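If you are new to this repository, start here. Below is one unmodified record pulled from the training split, so you can see the exact layout before writing a loader.
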Amino acid sequence: MLETVWNHLMEDGVGIMGLYGMGGVGKTTLLKQNNNKFLENEDDFDIVIWIVVSKDLQIQNIQEELATKLGLAGEDWILKNEHQKACEVHNVLRRKKFLLLLDDIWTKVDLTEIGVPYPSRKNGRKVVFTTRSQEVCGRMGVDVEMEVQCLQFQDAFDLFKTKVGEITLRSDPNIQNLASIVAKKCHGLPLALNVIGEAMASKRTIQEWQHAIDVLTSYASEFFGMEDEILPILKYSYDNLKSEHVKSCLLYCALFPEDHRISKHGLVEYMICEGIIDGSESMERAQNKGYEIIGSLIRASLLMEDEKKALREVFMHDVVREMALWIASDFGKHKDNFIVRAGVGLQELPSVKNWNVVKRMSLMSNKIGRVSGSDGCLELTTLFLQKNKKTLVSISGEFFRFMPRLVVLDLSYNINLSELPGEISELVSLKYLNMSFTGIQCLPVGFLELKNLIHLDLEDTSELSSIVGISALVNLKSQHTGGVTSLGTIRNLNHRNHLWFSSRSVFQLSQALAVKSCQLKSSNISLLSSMEKVHELLLDGCTFSDIKMDVPENAYFMNLSRITLQHCECVRDLTWLMFASNLTVLFICDVKEVEGIISKEKVYVGEESSDIVPFQKLRTLRLIDLPELKTMYWSSLPFRCLTKIVVFNCPKLRKLLK
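And here is the target side for that same chain:
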């Protein structure tokens, strides 16, 4: 990493470089290493200046540091005002080729206000800074930004062993293996490796090391040095967040297990129902706000993205998660307020001293078999019971009694959970209910009393016999119903933001529509024209004898940008795609009978379609396993925006591009 930073900085076109990353990741150490290297190569710059800025930015303090380094300090300097001092600094630095190293900046530092001449490609001046915020890099106008990441395991373990020391590591042959386990708990964060390594340097019995592992696994904040040296440093990033909404989102993410990949869309749905985001005016606006909040946490280095799934998921570094749990429990003083025992192998409900003080509880990803009555949870607002998979088979009616404030209940991915008690009707504040991928056979008695329900997810509930009457839940704004035998009042639900029917069902989002496993003898594409906000369309495993082209006037699917058609039968063409003028992604797979994408005969049936040139904005095209496909269009298309194309197993396709 040191060499990479050095090489980038010495490039002619680099004037300002930003190093960003989470607290304790080693940004300052990296900057010091570069400072030492520059001091060893004195010919590169006339002067190298190091200044620690810190959270409370004071222009005057930076100017005083500069005055000392530049030999300007004295009685005359003291009498000057801020502007005059800036002029003095500028007059000296404008004649020098300098390197300015600014450590730990939290907001934009106005170089002109300080008196520092702005670095350019020609003058050879350089400014390098460290920050926890990628947003600061943008505001500083960097030429290069580099993320300082946690150490890979071998490097992390080497650092940890250095702190523990050879005397301890050799005191027992088993300590080396246990040290590896403890080091992994630090997840490559140098701050944690240093502090925990030093704490273990005097521990020379197997029992002490095993105890350390137990503490770090259960309540890591109680480990020696955590509350004094690690968590407070990370908390600076939390304190610097701009709003309570953003802070609440970060704490909410701590409900998930270690290293869990959190769906961005799902997280936004939780936040809307919890009231962290106001969804009263527009669901689309609320969703956009949710993604903005998640983005701000990523830029603050408090949430992370996997490069391959950055559009869909985020996750927390384990030490950041411990910090969030520590804050949520009032710095460890009230642990029962925020109970998270997710992914730890529980087989029954945990022991809680006072259920009436519990506000949020996550028991997801465990092996709990039955949930029975509690003493009442008068303050409980959030309950995660999802992903107990094959083990969770029943929830007693008594359990749901005395939960007047419960807002979010997630029961998804409990495939053997076949029924819910009628007492669920007593959850009068419930706004979010997720029963997707469960074995639910019928909606519980009293279900329609949940008048405050905003989000209902019944996706892939293939055993559910009926959703008749569900439209009586007048506040629903987000709804997924999947695998339902009887669609009941399906037409009355068209105004919902989300509607799903899969396996005899349909899913309509404000931005997405999916039709799965439908046996349709005839389908009129004009049905889609009433869904103005649809951006994405999925047709999966459906049978269409024909898609009629009697598209009403002005029905041009202006928002439709992504279409996936797969595993469908009796589809010979997709001429209606001509009306999707903003289509950017088209994926067609395993549609055995399709012969052409656009049919010339169908196009010339109506005057309104004959002048349209299709696919003008298409960027990605995938055609896979289409044995009868001969052409996309009767003449070659320019495909001016096409950047990616995949064609596989389409033996009759002879011509595609001009």
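Two things worth knowing about this chain: The longest strand covers residues 98-105. The chain is about 30% helix and 15% strand.
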